[in-house]
Amino acid sequence: MQSLHRALDVVEAVAALTQAGGRGCSLAEIAEATALPAPTIHRLAGTLVERGYLRRLADRRYGLGFRLVPLGATAQLQVGAEADQVLADLVAELGESANLAVLAGHQAEYVAQAPARFAMRMFTEVGRRVDLHSTGVGKALLAQLDDDAVRAAVRRAGMTRRTEHTLTTPEDLLARLREVRAQGYALDEQEQELGVRCVAVALNPPGLGMALSVSGPLTRMGEDVVARAVPLLQAAADRLAAALDPTSSTQTDP
Protein backbone atom coordinates (compact mmCIF):
# COMPACT_ATOMS: atom_id res chain seq x y z
CA MET A 1 0.00 0.00 0.00
CA GLN A 2 2.86 2.37 0.77
CA SER A 3 4.35 1.84 -2.68
CA LEU A 4 0.97 2.47 -4.29
CA HIS A 5 0.52 5.71 -2.37
CA ARG A 6 4.02 6.82 -3.32
CA ALA A 7 3.49 6.03 -7.00
CA LEU A 8 0.29 8.06 -7.03
CA ASP A 9 2.07 10.88 -5.20
CA VAL A 10 4.66 10.91 -7.99
CA VAL A 11 2.04 11.08 -10.75
CA GLU A 12 0.18 13.88 -8.97
CA ALA A 13 3.43 15.78 -8.35
CA VAL A 14 4.39 15.57 -12.02
CA ALA A 15 0.92 16.81 -12.98
CA ALA A 16 1.12 19.76 -10.57
CA LEU A 17 4.69 20.70 -11.51
CA THR A 18 3.99 20.44 -15.23
CA GLN A 19 0.87 22.55 -14.89
CA ALA A 20 2.77 25.20 -12.96
CA GLY A 21 5.84 25.27 -15.18
CA GLY A 22 4.44 24.40 -18.58
CA ARG A 23 6.97 21.61 -19.23
CA GLY A 24 8.28 18.47 -17.63
CA CYS A 25 10.00 18.22 -14.27
CA SER A 26 13.21 16.68 -12.98
CA LEU A 27 13.62 13.88 -10.48
CA ALA A 28 14.95 16.41 -7.99
CA GLU A 29 11.81 18.52 -8.35
CA ILE A 30 9.59 15.46 -7.89
CA ALA A 31 11.58 14.43 -4.82
CA GLU A 32 11.18 17.90 -3.30
CA ALA A 33 7.44 17.95 -4.03
CA THR A 34 6.80 14.50 -2.57
CA ALA A 35 9.43 14.48 0.22
CA LEU A 36 10.52 11.05 -1.00
CA PRO A 37 14.15 9.88 -1.36
CA ALA A 38 15.67 10.28 -4.81
CA PRO A 39 16.34 6.52 -5.24
CA THR A 40 12.66 5.82 -4.49
CA ILE A 41 11.58 8.44 -7.03
CA HIS A 42 13.92 6.97 -9.64
CA ARG A 43 12.55 3.45 -9.10
CA LEU A 44 8.90 4.52 -9.14
CA ALA A 45 9.37 6.78 -12.15
CA GLY A 46 10.95 3.93 -14.10
CA THR A 47 7.97 1.67 -13.44
CA LEU A 48 5.48 4.44 -14.29
CA VAL A 49 7.30 5.15 -17.56
CA GLU A 50 7.24 1.45 -18.41
CA ARG A 51 3.48 1.33 -17.80
CA GLY A 52 2.84 4.52 -19.75
CA TYR A 53 1.72 6.74 -16.87
CA LEU A 54 4.81 8.94 -17.18
CA ARG A 55 7.02 9.89 -20.13
CA ARG A 56 10.77 10.45 -20.02
CA LEU A 57 11.46 13.49 -22.17
CA ALA A 58 14.53 14.13 -24.33
CA ASP A 59 16.08 16.39 -21.66
CA ARG A 60 15.68 13.62 -19.04
CA ARG A 61 12.74 15.38 -17.43
CA TYR A 62 9.39 13.72 -16.85
CA GLY A 63 5.88 14.44 -18.06
CA LEU A 64 2.53 12.69 -17.81
CA GLY A 65 2.18 9.60 -19.97
CA PHE A 66 -0.40 9.06 -22.66
CA ARG A 67 -1.84 6.04 -20.84
CA LEU A 68 -3.65 8.58 -18.68
CA VAL A 69 -5.60 9.99 -21.64
CA PRO A 70 -8.08 7.11 -22.10
CA LEU A 71 -8.39 6.74 -18.33
CA GLY A 72 -9.26 10.40 -18.00
CA ALA A 73 -11.76 10.15 -20.85
CA THR A 74 -13.45 7.20 -19.18
CA ALA A 75 -13.60 9.05 -15.87
CA GLN A 76 -15.12 12.05 -17.64
CA LEU A 77 -17.80 9.83 -19.13
CA GLN A 78 -18.81 8.82 -15.61
CA VAL A 79 -19.56 12.47 -14.88
CA GLY A 80 -21.47 12.50 -18.14
CA ALA A 81 -23.67 14.83 -20.09
CA GLU A 82 -26.21 14.84 -17.26
CA ALA A 83 -23.76 16.69 -15.01
CA ASP A 84 -23.13 19.30 -17.70
CA GLN A 85 -26.86 19.82 -18.11
CA VAL A 86 -27.45 20.04 -14.36
CA LEU A 87 -24.77 22.73 -14.06
CA ALA A 88 -26.08 24.61 -17.10
CA ASP A 89 -29.59 24.59 -15.63
CA LEU A 90 -28.30 26.05 -12.36
CA VAL A 91 -26.58 28.85 -14.25
CA ALA A 92 -29.76 29.51 -16.23
CA GLU A 93 -31.74 29.82 -12.99
CA LEU A 94 -29.25 31.76 -10.87
CA GLY A 95 -26.81 33.38 -13.27
CA GLU A 96 -23.75 32.46 -11.19
CA SER A 97 -21.07 29.82 -11.82
CA ALA A 98 -22.05 26.24 -10.94
CA ASN A 99 -19.50 23.60 -9.96
CA LEU A 100 -19.27 19.87 -9.37
CA ALA A 101 -16.57 18.60 -7.01
CA VAL A 102 -15.55 15.16 -5.76
CA LEU A 103 -13.81 14.04 -2.60
CA ALA A 104 -10.16 13.37 -3.49
CA GLY A 105 -8.25 12.12 -0.48
CA HIS A 106 -8.16 14.96 2.05
CA GLN A 107 -9.15 17.59 -0.53
CA ALA A 108 -12.00 18.35 -2.93
CA GLU A 109 -11.37 18.31 -6.68
CA TYR A 110 -13.47 20.19 -9.21
CA VAL A 111 -14.47 17.94 -12.10
CA ALA A 112 -16.96 20.12 -13.98
CA GLN A 113 -18.10 23.73 -14.16
CA ALA A 114 -20.59 25.90 -16.00
CA PRO A 115 -19.50 29.57 -16.02
CA ALA A 116 -21.72 32.46 -14.97
CA ARG A 117 -23.46 34.69 -17.47
CA PHE A 118 -21.79 37.81 -16.11
CA ALA A 119 -18.57 39.36 -17.36
CA MET A 120 -17.24 39.37 -13.78
CA ARG A 121 -17.58 35.77 -12.67
CA MET A 122 -15.94 33.06 -10.66
CA PHE A 123 -13.84 30.62 -12.66
CA THR A 124 -12.67 27.33 -11.17
CA GLU A 125 -10.30 25.27 -13.26
CA VAL A 126 -11.41 21.67 -13.73
CA GLY A 127 -8.91 19.47 -11.92
CA ARG A 128 -8.12 22.07 -9.28
CA ARG A 129 -7.98 20.74 -5.72
CA VAL A 130 -9.02 22.82 -2.74
CA ASP A 131 -9.12 22.44 1.02
CA LEU A 132 -12.16 20.90 2.63
CA HIS A 133 -12.33 23.16 5.68
CA SER A 134 -12.38 26.45 3.76
CA THR A 135 -14.75 25.73 0.85
CA GLY A 136 -18.47 25.21 0.46
CA VAL A 137 -18.11 21.90 -1.37
CA GLY A 138 -15.53 20.77 1.18
CA LYS A 139 -17.74 21.45 4.17
CA ALA A 140 -20.71 19.83 2.41
CA LEU A 141 -18.61 16.68 1.93
CA LEU A 142 -17.19 16.76 5.47
CA ALA A 143 -20.70 17.06 6.89
CA GLN A 144 -21.40 13.55 5.58
CA LEU A 145 -18.67 12.15 7.86
CA ASP A 146 -18.77 11.56 11.60
CA ASP A 147 -16.74 13.77 13.92
CA ASP A 148 -13.86 11.30 14.28
CA ALA A 149 -13.48 11.05 10.50
CA VAL A 150 -13.56 14.85 10.21
CA ARG A 151 -10.84 15.20 12.83
CA ALA A 152 -8.71 12.61 11.04
CA ALA A 153 -9.19 14.39 7.69
CA VAL A 154 -8.13 17.81 8.97
CA ARG A 155 -5.29 16.31 10.96
CA ARG A 156 -3.87 14.89 7.72
CA ALA A 157 -4.50 18.00 5.66
CA GLY A 158 -4.03 20.77 8.21
CA MET A 159 -6.27 23.83 8.40
CA THR A 160 -4.46 26.51 6.45
CA ARG A 161 -5.76 30.04 6.99
CA ARG A 162 -6.71 31.21 3.48
CA THR A 163 -8.34 34.45 4.59
CA GLU A 164 -9.21 36.19 7.84
CA HIS A 165 -12.54 34.33 7.74
CA THR A 166 -11.11 30.80 7.48
CA LEU A 167 -11.91 28.32 10.25
CA THR A 168 -8.62 27.12 11.73
CA THR A 169 -9.54 24.80 14.61
CA PRO A 170 -11.27 21.41 14.52
CA GLU A 171 -13.73 22.57 17.19
CA ASP A 172 -14.89 25.54 15.12
CA LEU A 173 -15.16 23.35 12.04
CA LEU A 174 -17.18 20.68 13.83
CA ALA A 175 -19.56 23.35 15.14
CA ARG A 176 -20.02 24.67 11.61
CA LEU A 177 -20.62 21.16 10.27
CA ARG A 178 -23.40 20.64 12.79
CA GLU A 179 -25.07 23.71 11.27
CA VAL A 180 -24.53 22.30 7.77
CA ARG A 181 -26.20 19.01 8.71
CA ALA A 182 -29.14 20.83 10.31
CA GLN A 183 -29.79 23.21 7.42
CA GLY A 184 -28.90 20.87 4.56
CA TYR A 185 -26.33 23.08 2.83
CA ALA A 186 -22.88 24.60 3.38
CA LEU A 187 -21.56 28.10 2.86
CA ASP A 188 -18.14 29.48 2.08
CA GLU A 189 -18.25 32.94 3.61
CA GLN A 190 -15.08 34.40 2.05
CA GLU A 191 -13.14 31.58 3.71
CA GLN A 192 -11.27 30.46 0.60
CA GLU A 193 -11.04 33.79 -1.20
CA LEU A 194 -11.97 37.30 -0.13
CA GLY A 195 -15.00 38.74 -1.90
CA VAL A 196 -16.34 35.32 -2.91
CA ARG A 197 -19.37 33.53 -1.47
CA CYS A 198 -20.41 29.98 -2.25
CA VAL A 199 -23.35 27.75 -1.34
CA ALA A 200 -23.05 23.97 -1.72
CA VAL A 201 -24.89 20.71 -1.13
CA ALA A 202 -23.62 17.14 -1.15
CA LEU A 203 -25.06 14.34 -3.25
CA ASN A 204 -26.59 11.38 -1.45
CA PRO A 205 -25.79 8.68 -0.61
CA PRO A 206 -22.54 9.85 1.02
CA GLY A 207 -20.64 7.11 -0.79
CA LEU A 208 -20.85 9.12 -3.99
CA GLY A 209 -18.43 11.65 -2.48
CA MET A 210 -19.68 14.52 -4.65
CA ALA A 211 -21.01 18.03 -4.09
CA LEU A 212 -22.61 20.77 -6.19
CA SER A 213 -22.09 24.46 -5.59
CA VAL A 214 -22.93 27.89 -6.90
CA SER A 215 -20.39 30.67 -6.36
CA GLY A 216 -20.09 34.33 -7.16
CA PRO A 217 -18.93 37.73 -5.96
CA LEU A 218 -20.15 38.68 -2.51
CA THR A 219 -21.84 41.75 -4.00
CA ARG A 220 -24.20 39.49 -6.00
CA MET A 221 -24.45 36.47 -3.67
CA GLY A 222 -26.82 38.01 -1.15
CA GLU A 223 -29.19 36.18 1.18
CA ASP A 224 -31.92 36.27 -1.46
CA VAL A 225 -29.70 34.45 -3.96
CA VAL A 226 -28.67 31.87 -1.36
CA ALA A 227 -32.32 31.29 -0.43
CA ARG A 228 -33.17 30.71 -4.10
CA ALA A 229 -30.09 28.57 -4.68
CA VAL A 230 -30.55 26.05 -1.87
CA PRO A 231 -33.70 24.25 -3.15
CA LEU A 232 -32.38 24.39 -6.71
CA LEU A 233 -29.09 22.83 -5.63
CA GLN A 234 -30.85 20.16 -3.59
CA ALA A 235 -33.08 19.22 -6.53
CA ALA A 236 -30.07 19.23 -8.86
CA ALA A 237 -28.14 16.99 -6.45
CA ASP A 238 -31.00 14.48 -6.36
CA ARG A 239 -31.25 14.54 -10.14
CA LEU A 240 -27.53 14.02 -10.66
CA ALA A 241 -27.28 11.32 -7.99
CA ALA A 242 -30.07 9.39 -9.70
CA ALA A 243 -28.28 9.68 -13.05
CA LEU A 244 -24.89 8.62 -11.69
CA ASP A 245 -26.19 5.90 -9.38
CA PRO A 246 -29.79 4.83 -10.04
CA THR A 247 -29.78 2.80 -6.80
CA SER A 248 -29.41 6.06 -4.86
CA SER A 249 -32.91 7.32 -5.67
CA THR A 250 -35.46 6.88 -2.91
CA GLN A 251 -38.42 4.72 -3.78
CA THR A 252 -41.76 5.81 -2.37
CA ASP A 253 -43.93 3.02 -1.00
CA PRO A 254 -47.31 2.71 -2.75
Write up what this structure looks like.
- The chain has 254 residues and is of the alpha+beta class.
- The protein has two domains: 2-66, Winged helix-like DNA-binding domain superfamily/Winged helix DNA-binding domain (Arc Repressor Mutant, subunit A); 73-246, Beta-Lactamase (2-Layer Sandwich), CATH 3.30.450.
- The protein contains eight helices and eight strands.
- It has helices at 2-21, 27-34, 38-51, 68-94, 136-142, 147-157, 170-183, 223-244; strands spanning 54-56, 62-64, 97-104, 107-114, 129-131, 186-189, 196-202, 210-217.
- The chain has a six-stranded antiparallel β-sheet, sandwiched between helices. It has a two-stranded antiparallel ribbon with strand order 1-2.
- Strand 7 and strand 8 form a beta hairpin.
- Helix 2 (27-34) packs across helix 3.
- The model is unreliable at 250-254 (pLDDT under 50).
- Keywords: DNA-binding, Transcription, Transcription regulation.
